[in-house]
Specification:
Length: 275
């Protein structure tokens, strides 16, 4: 079953076509990662799937229905998106930010409820942000701030979550921290997670399904072990490489060619101890 589908989708900014007659399906209850070179249209495709960008042609389907025909509030109850580098008003607390995730459930007739309170409390707990609830968002570290935004999307209580480069500007430790959190949300709560990632090896480690975007279309899609090859990397990224096997996770491991120290030649007498 598919959570999201794009049918004959064409996306453009003015006269510049970014995505051209593209078809793609996002499997329900899985982690899907979009990969591709800078400017290939990954983020544009993600935005269109969240109905933030109107297609020039074609359609996006959410649970089999054309997303453009659905009421905004109904879409917001099924799908949440976290854009790249979101910003919050100065002085906004984490609690206030996370509460914004409940706006799709509010109306003149239906005000803040116990269910809303429980959803916010749970989102803070799952992201380990409960102790920071009264802190302002702008006072947090990069990793904490990203967790706060993810907590807001969780409070929205949707089956599908879209994230545009959720690890941007984070150090390696915080990247793994955020990706582990998203992985757990998928495994424990069966949320459909769709992400744009730049790091190919992390994409292979965390994704059930990879979609490679190139030249305005889908170059390949499928399980990482089925599609990630030297040919794909050369075609999509313009980079020669070898594909090995991650010694810990068994997932594809991209080893790019390039200039650098060759320890087999230059430092063959050095011994490296594992700490």
């Amino acid at each position: 079953m598919q959570a999201l589908e794009a049918k004959n989708l064409t996306l453009a900014y003015g006269e510049s076509v970014i995505i051209d007659e593209l078809d793609v399906s996002i499997p329900k209850g899985k982690v899907t990662v979009f990969i591709g070179s800078n400017g290939c249209g990954k983020s544009t495709l993600l935005r269109s799937m969240a109905r933030l960008l109107k297609p020039q042609n074609g359609a996006v389907l959410l649970d089999g229905q054309a997303i453009a025909s659905l009421p905004t509030r109904e879409v917001a109850k099924k799908l949440a998106i976290l854009p790249q580098t979101p910003t919050a008003p100065e002085g906004l607390t984490v609690m206030q930010l996370v509460k914004q995730g409940r706006y799709p459930y509010q109306s003149w007739l239906k005000q803040w409820s116990k269910k809303d309170e429980e959803a916010v409390k749970n989102a803070l707990a799952v992201t380990n942000m409960s102790e920071f609830a009264e802190r302002t968002v702008d006072s947090l570290s990069g990793g904490q701030r990203q967790r706060a935004w993810i907590a807001m999307t969780l409070a929205q209580d949707t089956d599908t979550i879209l994230l545009d480069e959720p690890t941007t500007y984070l150090d390696l430790s915080h990247q793994i921290d955020i990706l582990d959190l998203l992985f757990d949300l998928n495994q424990k709560e069966k949320r459909t997670i769709v992400m744009v990632l730049h790091d190919l090896n992390l994409a292979c480690r965390y994704a059930d399904h990879i979609v490679a975007v190139h030249d305005k279309k889908i170059y390949a899609h499928g399980k990482p072990e089925d599609i990630i090859t030297p040919k794909l990397v050369k075609h999509v990224f313009g980079l020669r490489c070898q594909i090995g096997r991650d010694p810990i996770f068994g997932t594809p491991l991209c080893i790019p060619y390039g200039k650098g120290r060759n320890i087999n030649h230059d430092n063959r007498h050095l011994l490296y101890a594992q700490s």
